[in-house]
Specification:
alpha+beta, two-stranded antiparallel ribbon
Length: 131
């Protein structure tokens, strides 16, 4: 959806993988970042469904939606650490650009079907923002 291409790094949890380890792995796979301190997480998972889709076959067509566990992390490195071309597991990079954005704007710039998730995360993570 044009104008709403922004999102935070996210991804799946491998079998027998610890949730925090999965969050760190996904952050690295999508951004190259390893310099991050975990501040906390949502106490409960959040869920969303994908909107109806009638286009050509898509890799997400088999899924109805996702359940997510969110971790707040503080980047402790330097911007030069961010490398979107790392793409772990020999996968294609998931992002083609990055930028820092204010937490209170996150819900405004993500696809509409994820806005309730980003608004919830922003409210819950406000206690760590700006520290």
């Amino acid at each position: 959806m044009s104008g709403y291409e922004w999102q935070m790094p996210q991804g799946g949890v491998d079998p027998n993988e610890d949730m925090e380890a999965a969050a760190r792995r996904e952050l690295w796979e999508e951004t190259g970042v390893v310099s991050a301190a975990v501040l906390g997480s949502l106490s409960e998972p959040v869920r969303y469904d994908f909107p109806p889709y009638s286009g050509p076959p898509h890799k997400l067509a088999a899924f109805r939606g996702q359940e997510q566990r969110w971790y707040a992390m503080r980047f402790t490195g330097d911007d030069s650490e961010i490398d979107l071309a790392i793409a772990g597991n020999d996968a294609e990079p998931e992002f083609d650009a990055w930028r820092w954005e204010r937490l209170d704007r996150a819900a405004e710039i993500v696809v509409p079907y994820k806005r309730h998730i980003y608004a919830h995360v922003a409210r819950e993570f406000t206690l760590w923002a700006g520290r």
